[in-house]
Amino acid sequence: MSVIEGIYHNPDTGTDERRSLACDANGRLLIAPAQAATWSAGPMIPRATFTTPTVDLGETHAYTLLIARKSGVASRLEAMEIQTSVDGTRWLPAAGIFRNQNVAWYRPPQGSDYFTVQGRPIGRFARIVYRNGQTDQADLVLELAALAGA
Model-level pTM? Predict the structure, then answer.
């Protein structure tokens, strides 16, 4: 599958928009929109874990980048990981996007109110696993975005 990124002039808004297009092995054009999901985990006690529901990216998805975002209370020793699966049963960390980090996992040194994790999808399914640190979370929110052509 090939992913091409280009600029599309939207006649309705008069603005230029960045768009991603994907072609399958036969050269057929596939639609490659972004996909996003949000979960409110609510309050969490220290050292608790929250795993989001599974996101189905689609059997022939063209997504090349997953971004997870945390919003809550800074909690020392907290960590977040993007996991992917080919069958929705066996889960492994998504591939990392940086040379010095080969999995999509991050633990901010002192915790952080907001932080992100980026990874490459391997398989059809994705989810976020968040482990709280040493501080209660009042209202934890997690977001996952799947982007094509990034």
Answer: 0.78
